[in-house]
Write a structure and sequence with these properties.
Strand content of chain B: 5-15%
Helix content of chain A: 25-40%
CATH architecture of one domain in chain B: Orthogonal Bundle
Radius of gyration of chain A: 29 Å
Oligomer: heterodimer
Number of strands of chain B: 8
Strand order of the largest sheet of chain A: 1-2-3
Strand content of chain A: 5-15%
Number of strands of chain A: 3
Strand order of the largest sheet of chain B: 1-2-3
CATH class of the largest domain in chain A: Alpha Beta
Mean pLDDT of chain B: 86
Largest interface: A-B, 48 and 50 residues
CATH architecture of the largest domain in chain A: 3-Layer(aba) Sandwich
Shape of chain B: globular
Low-confidence stretches of chain B: 5-13
CATH topology of the largest domain in chain A: Rossmann fold
Structural class of chain A: mainly alpha
Largest sheet of chain B: 3 strands, antiparallel
Number of helices of chain A: 9
C-alpha cells in the first residue's frame, strides 16, 4: 500500500544520484539506498475511479454492505479499488467441492459398465474432476447408485451411504434406481432407491448413455454450488458424540 | 449441544419388511449371518488356531459385481471360503414366466449385461423350436455378425478387468475404446448401447443400415492390428505373466465333472464349443477354429486369459465371412403378434462369451410359458472358486476369479 507518486520520484532521484554520468560500476551505495522502498509502477491495470478506495471504504462495516453498494457491480472496482476478492470462505469451498466430486466405486449391475465407460478414455469424466473412483466410502463425495437395487443389497448400500463423510450427495443412475424400471414388478427389487436414501440427481435411461451420466454429474455440480442438494444433517466436520 | 437432527428421508424399513438394516440386525452383521444350518457351515464358521474371517464384498472394486466372499484366512493364506450369493437376484425367471413370449426378450436382456445379445439369442431359439418358425437366412447371418461383434467387446472388457484386478490401470482404457466403438456400432442398428433388445422370434428387429456398415468397415480395417497392439500391452509384461502362471489350475477331470463350459474348459485342454458340438444358426457354414490351450495337467489363469485373446481372432474371421456371404432378403418371418405355441418343451443353448448359455421353456398352450429355466455358465464357473482359491494367497484370489470371468447378473439371475 506504499504506492505513492512521491515514493517513485524519490527512488528515481536516488538512482540518478548514485550513478552520475553512466559510470555505475564502482559506485558505493549511499546510506539511505537499501532501506528506501523499491517501487514497481503499475502498468497492468488502471482503475476507473482511483480515489474511491480511500473515500468510500471507511463507510462499510460489513461485507454485506459492500455487496449491496454499486462498487461491487463492476469488475474494475472489485479488482482496482479493493485489491482483494471480497467473498466468503464457504463460496470458495463450494467451488472446490463442485469441481472435484469424487464418486464411490460401487457398481451394482448393468449401469456400472456405462459408469466405467464414462470414466475411461472416450468420455473422460476426469475433465470435470469427477474421476478418482474411490474404493473406500470414507474418501468419496458422491454415491452413484448404478444398477438394480435388490432387497438383499439395500442394507449394505445404506451402510455404505452412512459411512460416507458429510457433505455427500447421491446420484441415482438408471431406471431401476429411479423408479424400479423394468424390474418394478419383481418380488426382490426396490422400486426406486429414494425409498432407502436421499437422492439429489436422477439420471433415467436403461442404461443411460455415459454422456447422460456426465450431464447428471454436472447438474449435481450446480446443485452443490447453489447449495440446493442434499445438505448435511450434522455440522460439517468430525462427528463427535456428545459424551466424549 | 443441540439434539441430533432426524434424517428427512423416510426410514427404509418402516414400510418394507424385506429390507434388513443394521439397526435391526445389530450394528455389525455377524460373520455367520445365520446360525449354521448344515455341517459344512458349522465347520466353516468355526475358527482354528490363528485364523480369522475377512469379508470381501458385497461392495468390492474387483468382485465383478455384488458378490460377497467370506474368506477364512491364516496370515496371507486363504484357508477356506464361503461365497454368499443373491445380492443381485432380480427374479428374472419369475418375471419371464409372467410375460408373453415377445416380452421375455426385453426381460431377459439385462441378465448378463456384458453380452446381452446372447441372452436374447437362446430364448429366441427355444421359442422358434417350440413354434416351428423358419428364420430367414439373412436374419441368421445378422445374428451371427452382431453376436460375434459383441463377443469381441466382451473379451476386450475381460482383458481390461483382468489387468485392473491385478493392479494395472492402463489396459482398461484401451479395452473400453474397443468396446465403445463396437457398442456404438450396434447402437446404430438397435438404438441402444448395452441392452439391445434386437433379436425377435423369427428374425431380428431391423436390417443393417448404412451407418452400421460404414462404422463396421472402418473398424474392420484395423481390428486385427488393434487387437495385436492391445495384446502387446500385457502379454509381455513379466509381472503380469508371473502372477498369472500356475495360479488356479483346473485339470480336465475337474472341468468335466463340474460342468465347466466355454473358454474355461477350452483353456483346460478340452475342445468343447457349442458352435461345433451342437451347431446352430449358420455356424456350420462358417470356417473358424476352436482354440484350445492348456496341457494334460489342465489350464491355469494365464491359459484362460490367452485363450480369450485367441477367440477374438476367430471372431474377426467369422465377421469377415459374414460380411462376404450374407444373402439379401427379409430379416423377419411373418408371424402373428400374439403367439400361443402348442404345449411342449424346448431347450436351446448358445455359446456365449462365458460358455454354454441355455434356456429351457415349457409351454402349456397359453401366451406365457409355464416354466422358464435359465442355465448360466457364470454360475457353474463360480463353483470352481472355492476349489481354486483354497491354499492360495489373498492377492491371488483376484487373479483366479477374474480369469474365470463371472458376471454377477447371470449368477444371481
Amino acid at each position: 500500500m506504499a504506492m505513492t507518486p512521491g515514493g517513485a520520484e524519490t527512488a528515481a532521484q536516488a538512482a540518478e544520484d548514485s550513478a552520475p554520468g553512466g559510470e555505475a560500476a564502482l559506485v558505493k551505495a549511499a546510506p539511505g539506498d537499501v532501506s528506501s522502498p523499491i517501487i514497481v509502477p503499475n502498468t497492468l491495470w488502471t482503475s476507473a475511479r482511483p480515489n474511491s478506495y480511500e473515500s468510500t471504504a471507511a463507510r462499510f462495516t460489513h461485507l454485506r454492505e459492500l455487496e449491496h453498494s454499486d462498487l461491487m457491480l463492476s469488475d474494475t472496482a472489485r479488482w482496482g479499488q479493493l485489491e482483494v476478492i471480497p467473498t466468503k470462505a464457504d463460496l470458495i469451498i463450494d467451488l472446490i467441492r463442485m469441481n472435484s466430486l469424487w464418486p464411490l466405486l460401487s457398481g451394482l449391475a448393468c449401469c456400472a459398465i456405462e459408469m466405467m465407460s464414462a470414466a475411461t478414455s472416450k468420455n473422460d469424466m476426469d475433465r470435470w474432476g469427477m474421476f478418482p473412483f474411490r474404493a473406500s466410502p470414507r474418501q468419496a463425495d458422491v454415491l452413484i447408485v448404478a444398477g438394480t437395487l435388490t432387497t438383499k443389497m439395500a442394507g449394505p448400500l445404506v451402510r455404505l451411504w452412512e459411512q460416507m463423510p458429510e457433505p455427500k450427495w447421491c446420484v441415482a443412475m438408471g431406471d431401476c434406481t429411479c423408479s424400479g424400471g423394468r424390474y418394478k414388478r419383481s418380488y426382490s427389487t426396490i422400486e426406486g432407491i429414494d425409498r432407502v436414501m436421499p437422492v439429489d440427481v436422477y439420471v433415467p435411461g436403461c442404461p443411460p448413455r455415459p454422456e447422460g451420466l456426465i450431464y447428471g454429474m454436472m447438474k449435481l455440480g450446480q446443485l452443490v454450488k447453489e447449495r440446493r442438494g442434499h445438505w448435511p444433517e450434522h455440522p460439517i466436520g468430525p462427528n463427535v458424540p456428545q459424551d466424549v | 449441544m443441540t439434539a441430533p437432527v432426524q434424517p428427512h428421508y423416510p426410514h427404509p424399513s418402516a414400510d418394507d419388511p424385506r429390507i434388513m438394516l443394521d439397526a435391526q440386525i445389530g450394528q455389525y452383521e455377524q460373520v455367520p449371518p445365520y446360525p449354521p444350518r448344515t455341517e459344512r457351515e458349522a465347520e466353516f464358521y468355526t475358527l482354528g488356531d490363528g485364523e480369522m474371517f475377512l469379508n470381501m464384498g458385497p461392495q468390492h472394486p474387483s468382485t465383478h459385481g455384488v458378490l460377497r466372499v467370506v474368506l477364512k484366512i491364516n496370515g496371507e493364506k486363504v484357508v477356506d471360503l464361503d461365497p454368499v450369493l443373491g445380492y443381485l437376484h432380480r427374479g428374472v425367471e419369475k418375471l419371464c414366466e409372467n410375460s408373453d413370449y415377445h416380452h421375455i426378450i426385453s426381460q431377459i436382456d439385462p441378465l448378463e449385461y456384458v453380452s446381452s445379445l446372447f441372452m436374447e439369442w437362446a430364448p429366441v431359439m427355444a421359442f422358434e423350436k417350440l413354434m416351428d418358425v423358419q428364420v430367414p437366412r439373412r436374419a441368421e447371418y445378422i445374428r451371427v455378425l452382431t453376436g460375434e461383434l459383441l463377443r469381441i467387446a466382451s473379451h476386450a472388457l475381460f482383458q481390461g478387468w483382468m489387468a485392473l484386478d491385478l493392479g494395472g490401470l492402463t489396459p482398461i482404457l484401451y479395452s473400453f475404446i474397443e468396446r465403445d466403438e463396437i457398442v456404438e456400432m450396434l447402437a446404430a442398428v438397435t438404438g441402444q448401447r448395452m441392452l439391445f433388445n434386437y433379436f425377435r422370434i423369427g428374425g431380428v428387429n431391423g436390417d443393417l443400415n448404412h451407418e452400421f456398415m460404414s462404422r463396421l468397415g472402418d473398424w474392420m480395417s484395423r481390428a486385427a492390428v488393434q487387437h495385436e497392439a492391445n495384446i502387446g500391452l500385457l502379454n509381455e509384461n513379466e509381472i503380469f505373466v508371473r502372477r498369472m502362471r500356475d495360479i488356479g489350475r483346473v485339470d480336465r477331470d475337474t472341468a468335466l465333472r463340474m460342468g465347466v463350459t466355454g473358454p474355461n474348459i477350452r483353456a483346460a485342454g478340452i475342445p468343447f464349443d457349442v458352435r461345433r458340438a451342437h451347431p446352430y444358426s449358420v455356424y456350420p457354414e462358417l470356417e473358424f477354429n476352436v482354440p484350445v490351450r492348456g496341457s494334460n495337467g489342465g489350464g491355469d489363469s494365464l491359459d484362460r486369459y490367452l485363450l480369450r485373446l485367441d477367440e477374438v481372432r476367430e471372431s474377426i474371421r467369422i465377421i469377415d465371412q459374414c460380411l462376404h456371404e450374407m444373402p439379401d432378403g427379409p430379416v423377419m418371418a411373418r408371424l402373428p403378434r400374439l403367439m400361443r405355441p402348442r404345449p411342449g418343451r424346448a431347450w436351446a443353448a448358445v455359446e456365449s462369451p462365458r460358455g454354454l448359455f441355455g434356456t429351457y421353456v415349457i409351454s402349456d398352450g397359453t401366451d406365457q410359458p409355464f416354466r422358464f429355466r435359465i442355465h448360466d455358465p457364470s454360475f457353474v464357473h463360480l463353483q470352481l472358486v472355492g476349489m481354486l482359491m483354497k491354499d492360495n494367497l489373498i492377492a491371488d484370489t483376484m487373479a483366479v476369479m477374474a480369469s474365470l470371468d463371472p458376471v454377477m447378473g447371470g449368477i444371481d439371475k
